[in-house]
Design the sequence.
């Protein structure tokens, strides 16, 4: 601590500390092998600690046994997945199979195999047409769906009974009125748990605007600031700002640790949920009595179901085509795909799967709507950036001083500028 | 390594029998000794630094694919981004507040810890705990404690009747930065306090005796003897904390995790969002932000050291 420490040394230490933190990935030439590959790298999203790992490890063993090709499995948390996959691409170290919630940007870069190259025709024919459509970019099917989920309105029947509500709301006016009644119960009751924080806000926005005749894109054109969308977002904002029927600060509430957890604790009257929430309620939070209903409609039209599917896309690398083909063949065999989807509590993506799952009464409310499910425009690479902007900024638009119209106008401008 | 150690350079054990004067080892011999460290430095400092610079001069699309050279567009885009002003302001407030509070609390705590009292060993251990646990875990714990609905802090304050309705510690713009600063101080204190304890122990006791004989009171002794003699330790504490706090990612990332926009981001989390979370989703842009960050902290540390007269202080 005397003379030995010099200014230079301190500055060097500062440089080291900053640089180590600052450096992102590296760009290196992609490696290519001749002939067929001996192993493939498969990157899978971690849907749940309990089921994802066991299923994919068993899958890898089966794959190795049938093909003789080693399957290097890497399971990554959803929160880190996007960062890791883009680092893989940047460093020229792409996996053979990647499980993600977006594929179109990769397809646009020409990095992916399409279904003609790697998917057996019978398998493609088995996939529900709505998902083939959402996985198709410029006429080719790149984004093979691994599983799907559909959103619906969950309501707490105990709170509804206490508030004197006999049936779930079918219109937005009913919805507001019911949410008010639940809020009026006091004791910390919240009418509607509304997650508009950065985690998954695009999903919350989507389900409301689909039920008001809105959409992100119509006839190939962006319609982000359409009158229906503006009305929808203004309504969503009014729930917290003028009606006061939501939890505190919806724009700063994430889904999993915010809105869902309020519903799981029996504090929230309503929340938009999906089958994994149902799973949690049936196993961990048995005290909460709930029921599921279609979304209330803002424009008087029939309720729309908002669905989500994730993708298993495959990267073009020398010599891996047959190995990738064998992967899809095994994955889409009914024993594999249905086992996994069932374990994770999601919904099928194949027609054969619909039949298998049809026997479960709990899933009926979703399955009936699955073939007509309403998806986000994941087939447009531009959507990947639009979705990021919605996640990051919609919370500001629904704040007290937020401006829904300006937010959507800016979003439309962003989409049209294509940047 | 093996060749070098067979009696070739027994510098440490028998310095007198060294054949050459210090500083004149043959180049290959020096390299052999420096090799492992050099490889490490090349691998973890120089290579990432070069990559960072290279990345910042290239264009990447949303999936991370290189699209071609960018010239200086990443830099101009970064420096003209509308959120930068707010982010720089946040960073300034964050670093200044955390460092100043850490030094003040650290000084007081060190004074306390260097006194003999019953249970001192226990207290010293307790102070070290926040340092020993991972920042991510500490931040996550604080996130739970600050929670609007279930957080223990709101329940505690409401129980005492200090507040009558919950405070949104991590969502209300008025409280978010102060809450993050509190956690930042909490995790910075152990290192700083121990640095000062070591500094206090290094002050010879006869100086205090002399002061007492001369009739100096407690405050006078502290101001005129302890503080000046602690000056080198304080300087190092400030400089290292500036760097740590500036680069601190987990505290802000986790506590600010459910807030939209960039209203509470510092340069470090902003850089990460530019690369992976914002609609730009651009590693090239983030790399230019990274270089900017390095420059900023170097300049800040340099200015501070110049301002306090570093060379004079370390001669003490």
Sequence:
């Amino acid at each position: 601590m005397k003379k030995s420490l010099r200014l230079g040394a301190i500055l060097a230490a500062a440089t080291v500390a900053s640089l180590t933190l600052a450096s992102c990935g590296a760009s290196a030439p992609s490696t290519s092998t001749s002939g067929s590959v001996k192993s493939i790298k498969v990157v899978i999203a971690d849907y749940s600690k309990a089921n994802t790992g066991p299923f994919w490890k068993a899958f890898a063993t089966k794959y190795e046994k049938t093909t003789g090709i080693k399957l290097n499995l890497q399971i990554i948390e959803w929160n880190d997945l996007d960062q890791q996959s883009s680092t893989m691409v940047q460093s020229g170290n792409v996996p053979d199979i990647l499980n993600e919630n977006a594929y179109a940007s990769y397809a646009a870069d020409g990095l992916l195999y399409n279904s003609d190259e790697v998917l057996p025709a019978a398998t493609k024919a088995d996939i529900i047409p709505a998902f083939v459509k959402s996985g198709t970019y410029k006429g080719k099917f790149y984004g093979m769906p691994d599983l799907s989920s559909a959103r619906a309105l969950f309501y707490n029947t105990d709170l509804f009974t206490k508030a004197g509500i006999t049936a779930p709301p079918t219109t937005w006016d009913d919805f507001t009125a019911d949410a008010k009644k639940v809020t009026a119960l006091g004791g910390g009751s919240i009418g509607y748990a509304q997650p508009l924080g950065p985690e998954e806000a695009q999903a919350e926005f989507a389900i409301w605007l689909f039920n008001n005749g809105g959409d992100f894109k119509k006839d190939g054109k962006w319609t982000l600031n359409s009158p229906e969308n503006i009305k929808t977002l203004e309504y969503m904002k009014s729930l917290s700002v003028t009606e006061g029927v939501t939890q505190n600060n919806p724009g700063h509430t994430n889904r999993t640790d915010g809105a869902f957890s309020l519903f799981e604790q029996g504090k929230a009257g309503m929340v938009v949920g999906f089958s994994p929430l149902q799973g949690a309620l049936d196993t961990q939070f048995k005290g909460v009595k709930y029921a599921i209903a279609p979304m209330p409609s803002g424009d008087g039209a029939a309720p729309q179901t908002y669905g989500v599917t994730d993708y298993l896309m495959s990267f073009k690398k020398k010599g891996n085509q047959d190995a990738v083909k064998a992967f899809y063949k095994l994955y889409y065999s009914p024993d594999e795909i249905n086992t996994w989807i069932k374990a994770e509590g999601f919904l099928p993506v194949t027609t054969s799967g619909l039949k298998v799952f049809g026997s479960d009464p709990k899933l009926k409310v979703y399955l009936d709507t699955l073939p007509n499910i309403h998806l986000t425009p994941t087939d447009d690479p531009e959507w990947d950036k639009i979705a990021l902007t919605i996640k990051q900024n919609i919370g500001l638009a629904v704040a007290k001083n937020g401006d829904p119209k300006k937010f959507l106008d800016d979003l439309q401008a962003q989409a049209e500028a294509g940047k | 390594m093996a060749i070098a150690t067979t009696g070739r350079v027994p510098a440490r054990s028998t310095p007198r029998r060294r054949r050459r004067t210090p500083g004149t080892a043959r180049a290959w011999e020096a390299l052999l000794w420096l090799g492992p460290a050099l490889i490490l430095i090349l691998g973890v400092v120089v290579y990432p630094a070069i990559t960072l610079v290279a990345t910042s001069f290239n264009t990447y699309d949303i999936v991370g694919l290189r699209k071609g050279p960018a010239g200086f567009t990443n830099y101009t885009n970064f420096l003209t981004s509308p959120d930068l002003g707010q982010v720089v302001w946040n960073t300034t407030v964050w670093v200044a507040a955390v460092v100043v509070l850490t030094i003040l609390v650290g000084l007081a705590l060190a004074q306390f810890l260097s006194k003999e009292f019953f249970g001192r060993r226990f207290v010293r251990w307790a102070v070290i705990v926040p340092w020993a646990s991972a920042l991510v875990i500490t931040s996550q714990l604080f996130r739970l404690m600050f929670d609007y609905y279930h957080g223990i802090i709101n329940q505690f304050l409401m129980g005492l009747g200090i507040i009558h309705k919950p405070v949104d510690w991590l969502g209300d713009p008025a409280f978010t930065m102060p809450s993050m600063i509190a956690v930042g101080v909490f995790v910075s204190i152990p290192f700083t306090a121990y640095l000062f304890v070591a500094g206090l122990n290094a002050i010879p006791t006869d100086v205090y005796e002399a002061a007492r004989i001369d009739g100096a009171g407690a405050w006078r002794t502290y101001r005129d003897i302890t503080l000046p003699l602690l000056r080198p330790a304080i300087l190092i504490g400030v400089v290292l904390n500036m760097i740590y706090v500036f680069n601190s990612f987990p505290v802000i990332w986790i506590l600010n995790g459910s807030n939209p926009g960039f209203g509470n981001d510092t340069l470090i989390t902003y850089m990460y969002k530019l690369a992976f979370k914002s609609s730009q989703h651009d590693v090239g842009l983030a790399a230019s932000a990274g270089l900017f960050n390095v420059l900023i902290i170097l300049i800040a540390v340099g200015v501070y050291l110049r301002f306090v007269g570093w060379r004079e202080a370390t001669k003490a």
